[in-house]
Amino acid sequence: MKAAASRRQFIQSIVGAAAASKLMNLMPHAAFAAGEAPKRLLCVFHPMGYLENSFWPSGEGSSFRLGETQTALEPYKSKLLYVDGLMRSDRAYWEDARWKVHGKDNEHGSGINGSFTGSWIGDSGFAASASIDQLVANHLFAQKPTPFKTIDLAVAKGGGPHGSAFFAAAGTPVKPMEARKQAFDTLFANLKTGTPGGDDAALQKEKAQKQRVIDTVRAEFKAVCSRIGAEEKAMCDQHLAGIAQLESRLASLQGGASCAKPIVGAPSSEQSVEMRGQMDLIRSAFACDLARVATLQFGGADGGIEASGIPGQHETTHAVGDSGTQSVIEDHKKWDALWAKDMAYLLQQLNSVNEGNGTMLDNTLILVGSDTNTGQTIIRGAHQGYRATYWMAGGSNFAFKTGRTLKLPYPVSNDFHRNGPMWTYHNALLVSIAKAFGMNLNAVGTWDQGKGPVPGLA
Amino acid sequence: MRRRNGSVVLLSFCLGLGACSGSIRPGDSTTADDGDGEGGARTPGRTGGNGGPGGPGGGTGGGSVTGGAGVTGGGGTPSACIASNATAVGAGKWRRLTRRQYANTVKDLLGIEANTSNFLADSTTGVFATNTLPPQEIDVAGYASAAEAIAAKAVEDPAKLTGCNVSGADADTCAAKFIKEFGARAYRRELSAEEIANLTTTYKAGKADGVAVGLRLVLQSMLQSPSFLYMVEMGQAGTGSPARLTSLEVATRLSYLLWNTTPDAELFAAARAGKLDTVDGVKGQAKRLMTDQRFAGTLADFHSQLLHLYKLTEGDLIKKDKAPEFDSAMRVAMVNEVKSFVADAFASGQANVKNLFTSRYGFPSGPTVALYGLTPSQLTNGRYEFKDGTRSGLLTSPALMAVEPPIPTPYGAVHRGKMVRTVLMCDELPPPPKELKFMTPPDAATVPQRVLLEQHQNEPSCAGCHRLMDSIGFGLENYDALGRHRTKYPKGETVNSSGEIVASQDIDGRFANPQELGAKLGSSKQVRACLGTHWFRYAYGREPSADDACAVASFADALGQGDGDLPSSLLSFVSSDAFRFRRGVQ
Predict the structure, then answer these.
(1) DSSP 8-state assignment for residue A48
(2) pLDDT tens digits for A149-188?
(3) Which residues of chain B have a CB within 8 Å of the CB of A245?
(4) Which residues, including other chains, have CB under 8 Å from residue A377's CB and lie 6 or more apart?
(5) Of chain B's two ends, which shows fewer C-beta atoms within 10 Å, N or C?
């Protein structure tokens, strides 16, 4: 059985998605008992968002048709959820007086920092609060610790204030792993896939030794940390938290789990291969219940992901605003379709693992967001923030009803103060998500308007 | 198609700067952000984003002339440079060893090559990897697995590790000696009685399975200790605030600054004997460290990071990949050339600022030989003299020219000028305004190159900022995207590399070519003060605060002398109070 399982994974890794979907159902996923359904959150960042008209579904409610660039997602239509009519708060400078005080950096910088935090950039040069994934992770972890609080992976994220979409706290970007081998080593190194309930002396000895080292190191940290100033306090606290995590991870040395380690292929210069490889890692880590929150960051605020045969994403989005000719619009659509295709792979992976009464996808809320998106109606051009092209998938077992499009009222022209209803900031979406995980929050992020969650979503 | 899109991006950039009124924003005069500001933000050049802290008050007509971070008021040494005055020393915090420092330290202590690939990337201060942000879970896990692997390897030969007899009745004595002696080297201080007791318990816990296991657990613990992973600074008890660092703490700072590794036996012994409590003691050791090749390695590391040369080998510059000759061999050769240049400057006593900008020789190797239009036989011991005057130090090196601009564009002068302005002159350019407008650029295929380049300055809304950078960048037009020298553009017209520096502190005026540009930069007090600020970041892992005015100004003063000799300036730097005292110690 075990050998067969790894052969399946091997086949999956070489044959790719089509074969995998059939085989994944057979993979062990004993981390959860039948009927048990974990709540998970997976946040995905990719640059530049989507071109407005070809992205949004037509029709409302459950009878909608996917946007023309998004048809790769068709098989999962019943698990998609669109909220049309949100405004990125980091781009709401024409209607928010706070913008003059707190608006920093350009739209890419403020966009990537604000995309999952709903916050402006603080004095640190980074977002002034934690992102939704980390907030939810803290909440879930307090209820039930997992070996990792979050799993953060990235491809070509770039550095500096334009290179981080996810934040552990104000001014503290998470540091995602980019190399799949490193991620594999870190995530799965301690995972023993022995007989369920089994145990053996060597394992116990190894565990005792690791525990002794942890105790020694912790004692030294505590001694040093008792004599320091405030400057070092954060360092001590975070390091001790990391040690506590190491310790909790020892639990997975008990030999009880029978989930399967993924196969990690060789690093590829093809970014799509890297991205999909990371999606595989997340799927396997979720299956083994190594974490219940994960982030995937593909590219940074100014791009970073390349696709052969299409001009760069950044220049493409600019060109749409500049000349707006049919050919640059087609380029933009190609980009949008590519993202849909990669995301479809992710949905497929999660949807192919049975879990409880549904699939892993039903137990995982996926939120896809970007630093900016490209406008065509109210303002034509690159790097807009209105009708923010966030979209969601999965999580229907606990979060929101999927398979629908929710339309929010919004102004009809760029005379934003006089033409119809005001915008709802994307912070409201973050609030809705926090609530879906049982958090008692009515505001998320420094830009929050105080409107609470998105009406009609939950 | 591609070219056209490139133009669009840059023109939007131009108009993005339309808000710039023509003056340079002075640096934040009190960068007192020791909490969350340090370590995270990177400079504009690295991200293309808006400014990090820094930038002197040039161009604003103020009297502020020193200190790249704009923290001092006027020349001369501020009166606050006295040890007992708390304001003479900014508050800093402990640093975790960077990847490089960790690997060097393990190598020096144990002779083992550590695999640091499971650590997260170092956080940065300015452009420098300094690792001052708190660790994340993954870091802690990375340290644990690295310690496990290193310790397992080290105990393969316990006698070699301990230097004593690990069999029979002697084993415990040997282990006790190892804990005390090796522990002191690993922790860079004497161990406390509690630490010795704790580690001895750990040894005994493992010893049930053999002495080697006991030693392994001890070593594994030590390599995860705060005293190993961090440059822990407690200061000397009872010396108030700022506290005087212990002799060993000073030695640690000195060694990691000048060699990027742990103190060697000689420095450690001197420090243990308290000899680094005096300025003379520090100077004596610093002089010794700065005669070693490892110091040349640090100089190369500093300049490579400063000029963002990591982009050449870390997979950035994606778009330039499209030039087939710009392969990994070429990139490595470009970086190696800079290393050779710095090593040679060091060996010949020419490690000074002037030389960095004006030298007329280089060290082409491998694929860069052809890039220079040379053949290997024309080199003498790997060195080539550019008697035709086509080169001017690091400023015109293919490595730097390949990094800037990072994309194929006819507007490379903008990128290069911005790099000089922000990285070498420490001026901060305002961020683009929030709303970008677009205009159609002239056709780069038909308009003469210089006309194309000057259009930013003919458009009033662009000129304010672009004259600050483009006119400098013109001086590097003699080098193509990969740093090949050229006198004509592909279109056939002759390159005009004359330009002008405006709104600087001391080098305003026209120049005719890259060599004259290099000479201006090499002689500039502003550039030297800027480099001083970069060295401060490199050394302390934080932005200088108002309290650091003294340290920054005196370093700038030292670099401002003569040709700006780096070793002698660093000597004054490490003998300053800021280097030997610390605030924020309880």
Answers:
(1) T
(2) 999 999 999 888 899 999 999 999 999 999 888 899 888 8
(3) 137, 140-141
(4) A52, A53, A387
(5) N
